[in-house]
């Protein structure tokens, strides 16, 4: 048990439990303190998770709890030994100003509050590990990525050097509140627990911003990444994808992307349509090049639209000829009907083009169905093409046809006679095949046409709902 005189002289060491100066010079009696005050000053439990130390005004380290070991080691001292400079200078300055000072111990940082007890000639030191807080608030300007901070009032309170272009592009600056839109994107959603990466455009560049709420300190940190190059690369990829799909059916393009080198397939049942502009050679001699290309573009755009509407595949164009296939990538067995409906719709759709009416553009169309072989030819400027007797007959159906009409083979007429109307043309000489019976496709039967329109309306309604 220690006496008040021990505390007054400043000679009491809680670890040693005894006074080390048995014959001190006489000093004035200290002011009277209550028992609670003495207990409050002298109590430093080792169970305290934070560092607590006591230093004599003269510089001797009187006490250090177990949580202070790292600080004592950093000082290079020990209990009972003098506190080295510049530590002692920092302690005295802090005790006089009332402001805490920081001590770095390895990778850890401590904030130390010095509280002088002049009546007893010592200073109590209360330490707090602020390593995590320092890590949160440190935003070095050397960071190559944008980093800025918003307070709860959506005011921009910090922006590193890498974020200046981003901030200026948004019309903001440090000290100002951000726009309502940015507040919603970065602050309110994050604080409410719905924060996620957000993309914005500023000064012609695209950034991905990740807001991170730091509720302990009342602000939101925003970490930015310039993704302009990545988005440009994605745009180029989409453009390349679009160009590839203009050349190849999507399933074939997928196989090429997976590294398949030789693509060759046999299909037992497809329907082929050939269409050719009547008298195109003579027509082209009367037109300027730009007029000719513009007319062909308008006409073949109509073809492209019809192909998409009926779920078919464009194979290729050769000059003024257009080749379509059904049943190649879609296993649905109704491909003859879909090709026939496209052929019936073709004349009416082309007639809606002013240039086509002006120049009197008409088509010969031929259709055939049966087995084919299809594959990709070449490694540069490659094409997807189709071969076989079915292709040859379909081409002959077109070339031996009549302007403005759709000529079909016996195989097509046999499969569609219950749903479409045909007019027999009789026997037509087909190169390499002799004389073959052919028919002109005139349209769908009334009942079938009504069902087709109802089905189309149902699909349209379902798609829009």
Describe the structure.
This protein has 465 residues and is of the alpha+beta class. It folds into three domains: 4-133, PAS domain (Beta-Lactamase, 2-Layer Sandwich); 139-226, PAS domain (Beta-Lactamase), CATH 3.30.450; 262-464, Nucleotide cyclase, GGDEF domain (Alpha-Beta Plaits, 2-Layer Sandwich), CATH 3.30.70. The protein has helices spanning 4-9, 35-42, 69-75, 87-97, 131-137, 164-169, 180-191, 228-247, 250-257, 280-284, 289-309, 335-351, 354-359, 389-399, 410-416, 446-464, and strands at 52-56, 61-64, 101-105, 108-117, 122-129, 147-151, 156-159, 198-202, 205-214, 219-226, 264-277, 313-318, 321-326, 363-377, 383-387, 406-409, 420-430, 434-444. It is rod-shaped.
List the helices and strands and how they pair.
Layout: H1 4-9, H2 35-42, E1 52-56, E2 61-64, H3 69-75, H4 87-97, E3 101-105, E4 108-117, E5 122-129, H5 131-137, E6 147-151, E7 156-159, H6 164-169, H7 180-191, E8 198-202, E9 205-214, E10 219-226, H8 228-247, H9 250-257, E11 264-277, H10 280-284, H11 289-309, E12 313-318, E13 321-326, H12 335-351, H13 354-359, E14 363-377, E15 383-387, H14 389-399, E16 406-409, H15 410-416, E17 420-430, E18 434-444, H16 446-464
Parallel strand pairs: 14-16
Antiparallel strand pairs: 1-2, 1-5, 3-4, 4-5, 6-7, 6-10, 8-9, 9-10, 11-13, 11-14, 12-13, 14-15, 16-18, 17-18
Helix pairs in contact: 11-12
Using brief descriptors, characterize the structure shown.
Alpha-Beta Plaits, eight-stranded mixed beta sheet, five-stranded antiparallel beta sheet, 29% strand, Beta-Lactamase, 18 strands
């Amino acid at each position: 048990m220690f006496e008040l005189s021990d505390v007054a002289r400043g000679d009491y060491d809680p670890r040693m439990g005894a006074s080390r100066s048995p014959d001190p010079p006489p000093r004035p009696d200290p002011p009277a303190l209550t028992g609670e005050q003495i207990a409050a000053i002298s109590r430093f439990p080792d169970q305290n998770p934070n560092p607590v130390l006591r230093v004599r005004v003269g510089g001797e380290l009187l006490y250090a709890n177990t949580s202070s070991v790292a600080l004592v080691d950093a000082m290079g001292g020990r209990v009972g030994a003098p506190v080295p400079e510049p530590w002692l200078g920092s302690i005295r300055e802090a005790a006089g100003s009332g402001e805490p000072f920081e001590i770095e111990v390895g990778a850890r940082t401590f904030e130390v509050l010095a509280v002088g007890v002049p009546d007893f000639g010592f200073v109590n030191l209360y330490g707090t590990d602020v390593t995590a807080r320092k890590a949160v608030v440190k935003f070095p300007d050397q960071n190559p990525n944008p980093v800025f901070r918003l307070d709860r009032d959506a005011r921009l309170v910090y922006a590193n050097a890498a974020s200046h272009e981003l901030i200026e592009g948004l019309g903001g600056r440090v000290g100002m509140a951000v726009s309502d839109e940015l507040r919603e994107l970065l602050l309110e959603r994050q604080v409410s627990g719905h924060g996620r990466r957000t993309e914005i455009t500023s000064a012609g560049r695209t950034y991905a911003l990740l807001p991170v709420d730091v509720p302990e300190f009342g602000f939101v940190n925003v970490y930015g990444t310039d993704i302009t190059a990545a988005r440009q690369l994605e745009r180029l990829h989409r453009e390349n994808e679009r160009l590839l799909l203009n050349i190849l059916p999507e399933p074939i393009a997928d196989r090429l992307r997976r590294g398949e080198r030789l693509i060759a397939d046999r299909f037992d049942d497809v329907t082929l349509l050939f269409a050719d502009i009547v008298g195109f050679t003579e027509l082209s001699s009367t037109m300027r090049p730009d007029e000719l290309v513009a007319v062909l573009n308008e006409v073949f755009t109509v073809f492209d639209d019809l192909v998409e509407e009926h779920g078919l595949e464009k194979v290729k164009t050769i000059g003024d000829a257009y080749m379509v296939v059904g049943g190649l990538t879609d296993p649905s067995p109704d491909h003859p009907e879909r090709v026939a409906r496209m052929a019936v719709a073709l004349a009416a759709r082309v007639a809606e083009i002013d240039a086509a009416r002006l120049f009197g553009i008409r088509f010969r169309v031929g259709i055939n169905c049966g087995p084919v072989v299809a594959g990709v030819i070449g490694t540069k400027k490659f094409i997807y093409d189709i071969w076989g007797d079915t292709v040859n007959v379909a081409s002959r159906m077109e070339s031996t046809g009549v302007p403005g009409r759709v000529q079909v083979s016996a195989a097509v007429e046999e499969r569609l006679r219950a749903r479409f109307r045909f007019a027999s043309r009789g026997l037509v000489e087909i190169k390499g095949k002799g004389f073959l019976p052919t028919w002109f496709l005139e349209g769908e039967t009334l009942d079938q046409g009504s069902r087709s329109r109802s089905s189309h309306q149902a699909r349209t309604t379902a798609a829009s709902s």
